[in-house]
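Worked problem 6 (solution included).
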Amino acid sequence: MGLAFYRNDGASLMPLGLSRSLWSKEQMHGVAISAGLSRAAEGALRDLGRDDLQPARYTVDLFRPAMMTASTFTTEVVREGPRICLVDVAMVQDGERVARASALFLKKGETPAGEVWSPDERPVPPPLDLAPEGTEPHIPFFHSSAGWSQDFRAHQNSSRKATWQTGVPPVDGEEATPFTAVAAIADATTMVTNWGSKGVEFINTDITVTLARLPDGIQLGLSGLDRVVHDGISVGTATIFDRRGPIGTTVMTAIANAKRTVDFDAIDYREDGSRSSPGV
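Solution. The predicted structure is:
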């Protein structure tokens, strides 16, 4: 069995160990939840035969803990037109919805010739000799004042962060697609906007992705763009980029969760995605 978030269990998907959250061993993390939701949305578009459309906006609401148990994903095509398709997806466990997503697909066309402002500063991926091109999932790379590395403890600081990751297949035996990769990795927005000197002290309640284009393949990065926090509520924004440049943004809201902080000084990652305490 390769690295994946779920195995196909007939009418449902069963979460695998890679889906387990750092907040609780009984719960799934948002990366896996979003991978399942985006897979279902992309499947609904494929069933319509609309290969002329591409994802432009994708929003996930994480309103109930998703447990490490059988999950089903139901879809509804809310609107289909010549240049637009809107798909809603629900993640259901034990007969209750635990998360939902809305995916907006738009038809590509020519870009008008008028000049419009865009920022000069662009995020830069890690060098190829450190993070070669490929499709094999790996421990995420992070960048902070400590430079690029896969050493999480080196990045537990208050500096601006970026990450570079390769998409994990949503289901064992399938391949990750550019859309499922970006939808899943977008949950790491919390890692580039809410990870500070004492760990991750906020838990996100949603994910919103906006895309001008899909990434080239399933390798992509997130770079912290902005963060505003008041009264225990955080709003973080990140730029999504691949080796060609920026492709869109993510926006994430989160609430303080300091009593259950994820402290990366106490966690090591292995190449198979499993975790251990240092020295174990």
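Discussion: The chain has one domain: 6-107+137-276.
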